[in-house]
Amino acid sequence: MPPRLLAPLLLAGAVALAAAPASTPTFETDVAPLFERKCTVCHGASMTQGKLDLRTKAALLAGGKSGPGVVVGNSSASLLLDKVVSGTMPPGDDHLSSDEIDLLRLWIDKGAPDNQAELAGGTGAAEGPLTEHEILPIIQIRCVACHGKRKQEAGLDLRTVAGRLQGGKSGPAIIPGDPDGSLMIQKIVSGEMPPPELQLKYSVRPMTEVELNKVRRWIAEGAMEGPPREKLAVDLENDPLVQDEDRQFWSFLPPKRPSVPKVRDQKPVRNPVDAFLLARLEAKNLSYSAEAEKVALMRRAYLDLIGMPPTPKEVSEYLRDTRADAYDRLVDRLLDSPHYGERWARHWLDLAGHSDSEGFGQHDRPRTFAWRYRDYVVRSLNTDKPYNQFLMEQIAGDELAEYDGQEPTQKLIDRLAATGFLRTAADPTDAPERGFIAERMNIIADEVQILTSSVMGLTVGCARCHDHKYDPIPQRDYYRFSAILQTSYDPYDWLPPGDRELKVALAEETRAAREVNEPLREEVSRLETDLAREEEPYRERLLEERLEALPSAVRNDLRKLSKTPQAERDEVQQYLAREFRETLEISSAELAKRYPDLKAVADPIQKAIAAAKRDMKEEPHVRVLVDTGGDPSPAYLLKRGDPLNPGEIVDPGTPSVIKVGLEPYQVEKPWPGANSSGRRLALARWLTQPNHPLTARVLVNQLWMRHFGRGIVASPSNFGRSGMAPSHPELLDWLATEFVASGWSIKKMHRLIMTSAAYRQTSHADEATLAADPDNILLTRMPLRRMDAEEIYDSVLRVSGRLDPALFGPPSELEVKDNKEVVAKPTGKGYRRSLYVTQRAQTPLTLLEAFDLPKMTPNCIERGSSTVSTQALQMLNGSDVWQHSRYMAGRIIDEVGVDAGEQVDALFLRAFSRKPTAQEKQDSLEGLEEFARLWPARLEKDQESAPTVWTARWLALASLCHTVLNSAEFSFID
Amino acid sequence: MSRPKPQAAPSRRDFFSRIADGLHGAALASILGADLFQGAPLRASEGGGQVFDLSPKPTHFPAKAKAVIHLFMNGGPSQVDLFDPKPALEKFAGDIPSRDLTTDVSSPEQLGGLLPAPYKFRKHGQCGMDVADVMPHFAQHVDDVALVRSMYGEHFNHEPALFLIHTGRTIASRPSLGAWVAYGLGSENQNLPAYVVLDDPKGLPINGISNWQSAYLPPVYQGTRFRSEGPPVLNLESRPEWPTPLAEAERRLLAKLDAGHLAARPHQPNLEGRISSYELAARMQLAAGDALDVSAESERTREAYGLNDPLTASYGKRCLMARRLVERGVRFVQLYIESQIWDAHSELEKSLAYSCGKTDKPVSALLTDLKQRGLLDSTLVVWGGEFGRLPLAQAADNADRAGRDHGPSGFSVWMAGGGVKGGTIYGSTDELGHKAVENRVSVHDFHATILHQLGMNHRDLFIERHGLKERLTDQFPARVVEEILA
Fold it and tell me: Which of A455-469, A878-892, B277-291 shows the lowest mean pLDDT across its residues?
């Protein structure tokens, strides 16, 4: 039923009834009188209750103690409305009437104009001709998606004066001095622009009335270009917001290398780390606990560095090594292991918030090549890439050198994939209805949070809406920092995630994809030809039916047109094709729906096409963040964080409070002629200055935390005033300076920390030590810790012999079992480490999820470690631990044969890196016997064809393996 | 500050003394006694040593409700067809209203004219609340119900709207309402999770498990899915391929190995907690199984919930389970239904008949049952979806098949029990039922009101994160809708 198109006026009236006054109210004529009647007694000249003054619009916007009174354009988010609607204000019985409330609501929603002048496009307060820079934010939000840098629909680019005057196909967009004669205004007023049918596609909304009037006035005044809107000038020497005394906070000053303290008892000192720790301990008449047993220390080192326990062979070799430096050599061996990079990549990927999908919605769009970033991190750590270089590549890999048109080498791929660091925030904008400016700004905000919390140890999120309450980070600085990313994440010229990929791949990857895809593509094209042939008669039949309804004069033309290939159509035909699109376009779905005979033939073909397409490999590419080049959109300070309320233009910059001893943030073209702004490169350079107050401190604190369970600064993402003070400030600075002096070598830091006597202590705690240092802040012992999710998962694989040790490449796929348990698919050589299993927010590996696998919100700086009974259920009853236990039992029998005593010894060696005690052996043997008695009945019941007694013995040993993998000793690290 | 002061981690001795206390109680609950889910508490990542567990926490002020049953109605139930009659839709049927009604729709190209409600409205109860004839069972409860006709959301798409209604933000990765409640109040029953989700066996709702996530709250507060078919918790039962007493035998050996390990490592609360979590895991099998075992209910009850009718059996079972869980002290029970049963884009009349047919009787039985057992006073029942629907037709091929597109600007939800004022109708939409205009209630107001009934002030329920106080209502203005409270 085509709806009647001409009735709208009637209904528009009906709706208007509910919305009270038809014209837009202003503060001057409507709101101020209302306030005077009801509000200014308390919020006016004589008193300002709650620090709120309602006499001017500016004061209302500034708000009072509870925050701004009004969110322009959004009455439902405005405190003022909230108060009057709820009747909280005015107090007493004299509430506002519903007409008065409607008036306020309408006023706010229409843009809260101060007076007629502002409504008509003025600035409200300071009069004077509008300049381009008052208008540009409006055009940015409403128009440039189609008339901007990447897209010039109808040949029109609205970003510059020249572009507007030159106009597009239909002529100039504006005629200075004549708003109503300007095409731009005409099209907006008529509702033609932005096109209703495209608003969703491009995530754009029409202008508000105030905005439109502003644009009109600007055109009327001559559509002036300048002088430019005043840029927010930041004079660091004379800054009312951030002053030199703010810069004196310890974490904002470069670390100074302290001298290593002298301690009374030199005996326990193995390296300077100990001197710092022992100095504090001696002051309290305390010292370290005894050194851990050799194997306990070995196991700790293995789990810390490679995330898995040693093999029995490694244990026996180590025990045989009686050299004085056997342990130091062990640490070196582990640092050289390729598994080191895997383990520590996991820590870094937590900081980065890495995931194999976009993390939004049901379909949770896969990030098919996100593994390249993961591999880049593994490789970088394994080669001990200097941390400054590691950061440079991740923040600005694309700006380090030209990438366009270069030979696709692994090195190039790594440098580009490194920028995946800034591509991890959940990105819903692949669907246009989730791609509006607010969502775009959220993504940029998440990336800012990831960058600042992981690398800078700063929490800046609150400065998105207002100046930071605790730290000297004004809102201005938040948006200056955000502007660094806005030449790559341009909120006004947005790229959905699928468009942020570079088709760069190794030759063999391209070849492999082609080998799979080309035959499939041929098949698809063959099938499509078949389909078209089958459809042809029906297509003609349907077209004839439709033509019946049209005047006979056009029928022939349309018939002819439908036979003419697109490229050969003349101008008239092209016109007709547009006009009669609905008649001419006939989809396969429509045909199949209409003609059952066709459907019977077409469906199998369609299915085959779909199957072939499904089998195609995604074109290999690199997921990147690159500068979009050209003239960047301006970046604004967003008032109250509202993307529709841009304030002053800001230049990119780093937090003003971090300045002492540093070269300033300085943007330069990365190389002559580069089509890249250099903003991120400048950030990377600024951050990696050797005496940067945060970069090295934050990283060594992270390393320390992951070795000792607690950072020297216990709030690793907050080194500011609201964070925790360092427990050992001098040690932190010594480590930070040592780190830089050692060439930013992360492996050297591991070695330093792990060869300290502090790290080599036992985790056994006696009463006296506990009483003196209950929270272990002074490190009187090593903390006993539970393996984290990945350590448990990977360790089970390793001790059971099921680990596929292959490095790198696309992740293993997931399998969701009938009971919804999520497990990884095997590779044919076993199972890959958890790092190499697809990571998606909706379907985490069940075993990992039980053990506190974090949700990336948007990243994870420090994991929690809970102990709940669902973990026990998963370990005891889940499918994978049992399956691996059976495999483990099989390998033990292969290795030692059927002697139960030797089986128990072998099991303990694999799982605990030690032999059982006499008691444990006796208990285990008894258990084994009991298990062996239980299995036969079940096997007989299941009518197993395998020999019952032998199978029962094997499964009994599997049950023993299962018990041992469930024991506390397996998953706790001494 | 909402949370009690950080406590030291409980030692094993404390732990056993708690079990002992339980043993003095009666019946099953006392045999199960101790804390299953608590285990060893999670160490907070920041702020050093704050303990996160499920022990009951003090409220900010005396609570009206102890528990919440959230009947979440996936897809967006249509206010103008169920709760909010609009004669103008009859009068102007087929007309196209002004442009602002047609912006912000997900499928603008399919918009038609105004579409009248397919079912008649009638006034019910002492209060005279209008209810469409397609919900005859609910109509009998209107005097216990506070209906809000002026809810509004921010987004017309399911994903963001679901995030909003559950977490207060349209974006992913924020803790959901139930997680906040569990965090703020803990649980009355330490053998069951504080926050239980009963999702539809037919499949996960949109946004999947994110709907009940704890995000940056500790994982112990996230919703635990209890499945209404098969074992209620993933891997609650021993491997099916095992001989029956094997699990027992393994547990006995495990206890010996762990006891030896622990004896050599005194003063390690982590290790103690871990061992008790294993001991207690075994008991949950009983507690969860019992809580969800509806076969123990009388035939009359089963009939009342619609368990004997294939149309109502699935949802009826979950409603009945919800009552059993609340009875056992579970704090927050959330029911989901077939991915988007209320998402009536086409065939409005048929679609409503189906969604109401499936839910109306069970929901009514739940209200009756709670009331009869004296549980309604202390249980807040909340019914509603992520948005409402437009007064316009979403045109299908022909008018008979028309449905309605999503409408976030104005929709209806209702609450019952837990201290709400029965027979209340609050707020209104415009003449067409499109936009909430009078006494508008935001999602933040909705959240603040639910927390208020549980004895919590939304401003004071927060967690410190990166030096910030994070709240369910964030920095948004939010107000308790006092007008619907007794």
Answer: B277-291
